[in-house]
Amino acid sequence: MIEVEGLTKRYGQTWALKGASFEVATGSVLGVLGPNGAGKTTAVRILTTLARPDGGRATVAGHDVVHEAAVVRRHIGVTAQDATLDDALTGRQNLVMVGELSGLRRPGAKARAVELLDRFDLSEAADRVMKGYSGGMRRRLDLAAGLVTRPPVLFLDEPTTGLDPASRASMWRIIRELVADGTTLLLTTQYLDEADELADRIAVIDHGRVIAEGTPGELKAATGGARLEVTLSEPHRDAVDALGPLVDGPVNVSHDGRRLRAPVRSGTGLATTVVRALDAAGILVDDVEVHQPSLDDVFFAVTGHETDPSPASERPAGLQMEVAPA
Amino acid sequence: MTLAIDAAAPGHLVAPRRSFVARWRDVVVLTRRNLVHITREPLQLSDVTVQPVLFTLLFIYVFGSGVPVHGGSYKDFAVAGLMLLNLTTSAMGTAVGLSSDLSTGAIDRFRTLPMWRSAVLVGRSVADVLSAALCLLIVAVTGLAIGWRTDAGWASVLAGFGVALLFAYAVSWGCACLGIVSKGPESAQGVGLIILFPMAIVSNAMVPTSGMPGWLQAIANWNPVSSVTAAARHLFGNPNPSAALHVWPMEHPVVAAVGWSVLLLGIFVPLASILYRRRTTG
């Protein structure tokens, strides 16, 4: 449904894309994962016909994004950080406008707006001006706008960046529902857990290139899964033995003997089990943490270095807008 | 018009190709959207509602006492000029609105939709003409309320309004160009003020040009605002002292006014389209 081959794009002296290639099969979800400035937004801008590539080619629904841009626009829904709705209109007016500009007649657009407002839990705020919406409400409205015409291909550019955990969870739920009805989805994110949660396949992008691609399972296997970190009240010689059967590899002990680290398969109730086992051995525990692998871990596993976001000044104007937390 | 079912993904819909009628429907949608904007932004709304009333009253009662007008009252002389003063300065709204649409990403959103691309500019200019018409109406009503009268047939009076509106339309395309090239709404407003305010003032709109120093008089007499003001005065049957000047646009105000408007449209419509395309292709 989406094919990208050797895409390059330069803004001034900075190469935003340096030959990115990936594919998204019909009805599947690709998570494009990378730090700020990696080229995610540029790729989405090209695929949604907002920017022209300097080299390479890309097709969406079988149509070239440069030469058949008008046809591509009839197949896509877009929720991007830098392609916003109208602050001065109400939620309802925004959706009706997008519907009409997508080819629906006014009554049809109004009916569809009611449906979407209801589905995205915005009915109450429907007739308020969007300026007063919270971050989470804005994103939901933005997403609703992308779905007005039930497009076969949907682009979501960092749909949860800057959202609080509750809004994030509700956004995930909505996206999962969408995917269930066969929409082909390209989603960009800075969070591994988000890509893991929502995507069938993940493309890791860094400095304008795809540096790794695979299923979330493959990627997590490469990063070594979750990590357990236990802080003891005071060093204890039985601690390593007590933890041994619960973890998935060697236990690493810090210099002062109080901090123990080990890879684990993230399981439910792991922290409880750990505390119980240590307690049974008469060991006092200050803190237990289970770290899920992060983007940084993925980067470390794939590239051997930490994420290295380009300074904001290197990014093209118009792409620097960060959405304020709700 | 119905949405086509996408063969590759059943249940999903592919938006239809834009027909000629659908393109104009896009223009209507965006015109309506821009009008909603004007009503929601206090500053823009006051530009076309409060400001015309205020200017009309202030100028007529403050300046009117000190400016002698040959062949009639200052009131009858000033109303056509006030129409042009208000139309010209409120045209800045176009530059500010377009520039803010470009910088907030609203236009990017439009550009991902299967709409007629030029509808963004056309819808903006249609909304401007409508708000200009409202502005004219308010000046006229305020004028009538304090004793302004026309002395010509209704067709001629209507033509006077028409000439003013045509000019407002042309100026709004000029302001569209300004809005597209400026960095943001604030700079659009700043630059717009520097261009439009002198243009409105260095003219025969508020005072007869005969009292100005020679070089300024030459500029004022060839200023399009003067031509349009003179044409409106002529068509309203109001005092028009400029008619006595031996300067071509003042001797043929209606031809000059229409000519200026057509010339400005001929320059700014294609220019705005080119600038817009350039700004939105990256």
Keywords:
heterodimer, A: 326 residues, six-stranded mixed sheet, four-stranded antiparallel sheet, 11 helices, globular, B: mainly alpha, two-stranded antiparallel sheet, 13 helices
Structure in a nutshell:
The complex is a heterodimer of chains A (326) and B (282). Chain A has helices spanning 40-47, 69-73, 91-101, 106-119, 135-146, 165-180, 192-198, 216-223, 239-243, 270-280, 295-303, and strands at 2-11, 14-24, 29-33, 55-60, 63-64, 76-79, 153-157, 184-189, 201-206, 209-214, 226-232, 252-253, 259-264, 285-291. Chain A has 326 residues and is α/β, with parallel strands linked by helices.
Structure description:
The two termini of chain A are 34 Å apart. By secondary structure, chain A is α/β, with parallel strands linked by helices. Chain A is built from 11 helices and 14 strands. Mean pLDDT of chain A is 82; it is low at 309-326. In chain A, strand 1 and strand 2 form a beta hairpin. Chain A has helices spanning 40-47, 69-73, 91-101, 106-119, 135-146, 165-180, 192-198, 216-223, 239-243, 270-280, 295-303, and strands at 2-11, 14-24, 29-33, 55-60, 63-64, 76-79, 153-157, 184-189, 201-206, 209-214, 226-232, 252-253, 259-264, 285-291. Chain A is globular and about 75 Å long. Chain B is mainly α and 282 residues long. Chain B is built from 13 helices and 2 strands; from the N terminus they run E-E-H-H-H-H-H-H-H-H-H-H-H-H-H. Chain B has helices at 20-40, 42-48, 50-63, 74-90, 92-104, 106-111, 119-145, 154-181, 185-201, 214-222, 224-236, 248-251, 253-280; strands spanning 4-5, 13-14. In chain B, helix 1 crosses helix 7. Chain B is elongated, with a radius of gyration of 21 Å. Chain B starts with a strand and ends with a helix. The chains are: A alpha/beta (326), B mainly alpha (282).
